[in-house]
Design goal:
It holds the Pfam family CM_2. The chain is mainly alpha-helical. The chain has helices spanning about 5-40, 50-65, 70-95.
Length: about 100
């Protein structure tokens, strides 16, 4: 592979990475709204049934797009863990208002 080919591919990767971060930011804005609703309704920050359904969905999506399901599961586990952490903060802040 020539240096220009490598550079062009890396530019494409960087564009995709920026798009992924933009989508994650949008996702976290929505999950913050979910966290506020859960806190207002005094619901648990963790929803094991939802997580199980989503895990199945992630595996199906991974297969659909030719990826290893465990890679996708690991990625979303990190995202979900951050969401749960944010929901705990929101619940604590809401409890003191």
């Amino acid at each position: 592979m020539e240096d220009s080919e490598l550079a062009a591919l890396r530019i494409e990767i960087d564009k995709i990475d920026a798009h992924i971060v933009e989508l994650l930011a949008q996702r976290f804005k929505i999950t913050n709204q979910v966290g506020l609703l859960k806190a207002q309704k005094k619901l648990s920050v963790i929803d094991p049934e939802r997580e199980a359904r989503q895990a199945q969905r992630y595996a199906e999506l991974a297969n659909e797009f030719g990826m290893k399901p465990q890679v996708v599961q690991n990625l979303f586990r990190g995202i979900i863990d951050e969401v749960v952490s944010n929901h705990r903060v929101i619940a604590m802040q809401t409890a003191f208002q």
